# Entry
Amino acid sequence: MKAVFYVFSGTGNTHKVCRAIMREWETAGAECRYTEIAKDSGACDPNGFDRVVIGYPVHAFNAPEPVFEFIKKLPVCRGNRPMVYLVKTSGEPLKLNDGSCARVSDLLKKRGYAVSGEYHYVMPYNMIFRHSDGMAARMWRAARLRIPAEAKEMLEGKKSELKKNVFKRAVSFVFRIEHPAMHLIGRGFKVTEACIGCGKCARGCPQKNIVMQGGKPVFGRHCVGCVKCSFGCPADAIKIGLLNGWKVNGAYNFDGEPAADNEVCRYCRRSYLKYFAAAENAGGCDAK
Ligand SMILES: Cc1cc2nc3c(=O)[nH]c(=O)nc-3n(C[C@H](O)[C@H](O)[C@H](O)COP(=O)(O)O)c2cc1C
# Structure
């Protein structure tokens, strides 16, 4: 069994989930390859693989723009069709996020690939507001409880319907305005005097949109709003323009004590509790 993962991830949540799935598959004997979707991803060809995973974070009820562009450039499907699975992460468990698969599956269809199923994992917000580390740990525990069985399902070739419908598709379509808007908003990213000129933002930008000039980062016009730069800035020196009030800086601690029910954030509290309960009831509560 040969599998390939194509994954876009701004701040690491989607990589964390997809790599955990890949470890399960490798343990089961699959030969896996992992490619980050980025400006310099190089040529990628899913032909010859049995399983393909496309991983992405939900951005404004959509997949991020580089995922669309990546799929548009994939070589058309020849010969045996691989089974394609979408693995997405999002900050909230709202059903509206389901619509993000609509355009992705349409684009894959144009290249001759059919999506066999989608898996959605809630991971902490990297934008809007900061979850507590306890919430991050509980989300990660829920993911680890689900991943062994769901990775097995994918490896065995389970097929399931995508959770898109006309309403979710319409919402996703409207919010796709985020893609051109981010190019403009990204032009307004700036550093404060706290910038130490380390260049981490420029080296890490998946769009190669940041260049160092005179020891300071300068932001170009190809930003896709993944916020890898501001989230990972060791001096918290990057202002993200119009979105600065929603900025989240600094990695989460996923390995601490998971939040108890009464510590779950008030925002969408019932949805999070439902999501956690579904994972914990399905997988038992003994994720290592
Ligand atoms: C520009 C932007 C838009 C986002 N939009 C949504 C959204 O519509 N729904 C949601 O639940 N989370 C949203 N998020 C949160 C991310 O989907 C979530 O934190 C994800 O796990 C980040 O994954 P990554 O670390 O792989 O980039 C958004 C984040 C960013 C940066």
